[in-house]
Amino acid sequence: MPSLQNLPKTLGELRRSGDFSEERIRNRSVKDEMRQNLICRLEKGEAIFPGIVGYEDTVIPQIVNAVLSRHNFILLGLRGQAKSRILRQLTSLLDPLLPCLAGTEIHDNPYNPLSRAGRMLVDECGDNAPIAYRTPDERYVEKLATPDVTIADMIGDVDPIKAARGQRDLSDELTIHFGLLPRANRGIFAINELPDLMGKIQVGLFNIMQEGDVQIKGYPLRLPLDVMLVFTANPEDYTARGKIITPLKDRIGSEIRTHYPLAVEHGIAITKQESWGSRPSGSREFSIPGFIREIIETVAFVAREDKKIDKRSGVSQRLPISCIENVISNAEHRALTAGEKLVVPRVSDVYAALPSITGKFELEYEGELRGGDAVARDLIRGAVAKVYDRYFHGANVAPIVQWFELGGSLKVGEGEAAAEVVEELQTIQGLLETAEAAVKDMEGDKTPELLASAGEFLLDGLYAHHRINRDEELGYVAEPKKREMPDHPDLPSRRARRQYN
């Protein structure tokens, strides 16, 4: 590809160039262009959608098949499943530069202009017709579908000012102000939340896809656009807010279902990639234990299965992303207050991050009765229990539980310095030794900050499994024993009462 300074400036220069020859550009559609570039990537073994984690064996192969088939396609999935991000990465399958006739609204092909303005420019200037170039990002047009979108927004409208200035009839194509879809000619046009688009607008899209023509203010216009149409939709919204009309849905070549991460490891990778975790440290360092990352990610997994949470709304991947940012900030706050140089989050920081959790899900009736905060606390407790099992399976925690059963109690303050927490944990025989198993794979020395985090994780795991209890005033205490009904000689047993009756 020649440098920007050496690019052809006129149609005649373009014809003589090797990179933008008429043979290569004239009849090559945008779908052919994406297909050819995708084939080159596959042959070289390059990543198709870098940064998209967890879709390697499910969604991405289906998108590859759709592009190879030159299909318009739709991504169906709940919120927070990277649908929009995937569509925006489709631009990586476009050529670095695309020549077009300069000054035309719909970026006409220099060798085969579609609009009347483009044809007139070539007729008047011939080989001297000016040439412009478009980058992949300029060739991507995205529109969020809302009920107030009109045909004029999408397709275009008659511009009476143009008609008056040019003394033209309103039916003249040169009086039309083109909308978003024609301006995406020779590129990708994406519509988010397609069911929200009014039915008559969907009919307009259908006509463009099927017949290549539209009617603007009653005037028919032949407009065989060269566009790759891609859509997103939430499948649960078909009945809640609208639907995709059958003729349009029938013309969409591929329907691809997205999903939430199938494994905690995938979720952790996404959260680590998308969250603001690498912060300007100054004189402080940040170290996030693996079990904290797992707890935060497991909260989302538990929420997606919880009956108190509306599954039709979904639990976005933004929940763990926002949560871990809040968790790190709360730990940073504690380190600043306590004068610690190492910032290490604890389980108590996850509970402190409730504001970043409660707004990320919709509650069913049962959940509304309990309240968002109570449901979120249950989710964290359930997540801690699951992660605890992975780290302390088979560990001998009986001496620790016994210490509490003998009357011991331990209150770990949320803002308490790590050294003080470790000193208190040492009073419980075997606790720190057992807790060290949770940080054994981390690099560096077992600092007080890491040990305090691991010790609190162990205690909260025992609490999550009902081995010990947690009191507002006393902190961690023994689990109260269940009250048993005392035997009484005058009270017959249930079996005796049955026999008597």
**Gyration radius, rounded:** 32 Å
Q: How many structural domains can be distinguished in the coordinates? A: 2
> On the 0-100 scale, what is the average pLDDT?
87
Largest sheet properties: 5 strands, parallel
N- to C-terminal distance: 97 Å
Question: What is the share of helical residues?
Answer: 40-55%
Biggest sheet strand line-up:
4-7-10-1-11
User: What does the overall shape look like?
Assistant: elongated
Structural class: alpha/beta
Count of distinct strands: 15
Fraction in beta strands: 5-15%
What report would you give on this structure?
This protein has about 500 residues and is of the alpha/beta class. It has two domains: about 30-70 and about 70-95 and about 135-255, Rossmann fold, CATH 3.40.50.300; about 265-480, no CATH class. Helices cover about 45% and strands about 10% of the residues. It has 23 helices and 15 strands. It has helices at about 10-15, 20-25, 30-45, 60-70, 85-90, 115-125, 150-155, 160-165, 180-185, 200-210, 235-240, 245-250, 265-275, 290-305, 320-340, 345-350, 365-370, 370-390, 400-405, 420-425, 430-435, 450-465, 495-500; strands at about 75, 100, 130-135, 140-145, 155-160, 175-180, 185-190, 215, 220, 225-235, 255, 285, 340-345, 470, 475-480. The strands form six sheets. It has a five-stranded parallel sheet with strand order 4-7-10-1-11. The protein has a two-stranded antiparallel ribbon with strand order 2-3. The protein has a two-stranded antiparallel sheet with strand order 5-6. A hairpin with a 2-residue loop joins strand 8 (about 215) and strand 9 (about 220).
